[in-house]
């Protein structure tokens, strides 16, 4: 894959406010890097409070005038659908941008990032006509009915691992609900979010409805979280940042939040499972997107009867994995997002060794050939991991698999629930009673049975415990972008 053709577009970016590219009020810029090569692609502004205020005011003005929420719903439906068409039409360019900016392989981006982003707009286009209230039988001579109305101006803060997809998960339902918005993508991976804003405008979304500001969390992010005219924050990221957002909400206007946070997800394998299929899913469950996935199956729980053979098979496969240039079709795994993230992963690997886990493969930076210019980590497998170890408790967000052993269903459930997280989980067994029993016992927002990483625009995704609250996708996501009004009419 030759990326030279796209470099002509890599000029310094401005902010996208009220349908126009707008210069920031400050002078601080942020380098946007290609983590696979260590090269700078472009720069984006570090928006300050004044810049964020301009974006919020544009969104507020558009909301109050009603250029979007008062538009005929059939027209809104067509516009949202058109956004999906534009994404699908430009999928190769978008996948290349995502690969260059994030370090994931082009193939992964083309298969796993862009098609579901287009689909989320197709899905919510249909919802534009289906958001409505209800009539309620109440005591007395009254007509009581409800209106489901857009929540207002939404601040959206997205993560760097799936930049365009995570933006789509938020923008599509917000548009369907009639909201206006200000997006703040990760300062490391803003390029496809700017493209999404351009597609919204091209599709016919009025000026001011979708705005994009870039910047660091303590500057642009904090200004958005504390703005008195933002009605809701939709966030994907770390628990640490989520705590700051909750604090900012409490100290400002009590804006509502939806939080999709981290995970330390258990992938549980019983002896009676289809072990070949389970091994393949466990492999890609941790090494897809270089392990930088909130739903990564980073804790592999294997029954003691098959533990050694099953884990050994995964370690052997990991040792042969092709790591390299994300644009090389032969590469199975690309570069971590940054040097900082790479060092964080290596620190966790050191802790695994120090706490007594058995390193079966990987465990170091990959410096072979040209990879020393980027931030590559060899796929890593630890055996003999106990639930108390840091590598079994903390979200590493990298290609590090912690394999734990269990004896029976009760112990599997206990280990599965032994972290602060509860995002996803999986159970591999042919025993239907065991499968459904664990589906009830595991405290997680998703339980996959004899499968892993199953997603669909119509199915809700979100966490239990410190993996957050609120749901992305499906009709459930619309609940956080709307509010209910009760109307009473006296019939006397």
Architecture overview:
The protein is α/β, with parallel strands linked by helices and 492 residues long. It folds into 2 domains: 4-261 and 467-487, Aldehyde Dehydrogenase, Chain A, domain 1, CATH 3.40.605.10; 266-456, Aldehyde Dehydrogenase, Chain A, domain 2. Helices cover 38% and strands 20% of the residues. The protein is built from 15 helices and 20 strands. The strands form 5 sheets. Strands 14-15-16-13-12-17-18 form a 7-stranded mixed beta sheet, with helices on both faces. A 6-stranded mixed beta sheet has the order 9-8-7-10-11-19, with helices on both faces. Strands 5-6-20 form a 3-stranded antiparallel beta sheet, with no helix packed on it. β3 (29-34) and β4 (39-45) form a beta hairpin. The chain starts with 14 loop residues before the first strand and ends with a strand. The mean pLDDT is 97.
Fourth-level CATH superfamily of the largest domain: Aldehyde Dehydrogenase, Chain A, domain 1
State the helicity in percent bands.
25-40%
CA-atom Rg in angstroms: 23 Å
Instruction: Kindly report the spatial arrangement of strands forming the biggest sheet.
Output: 14-15-16-13-12-17-18
Gross morphology is globular
- CATH top-level class of the largest domain: Alpha Beta
How is the biggest beta sheet arranged? 7 strands, mixed
Q: What is the annotated CATH architecture of the largest domain? A: 3-Layer(aba) Sandwich
The low-pLDDT segments are: none
Count of strand segments? 20
Helix count from the secondary structure assignment? 15
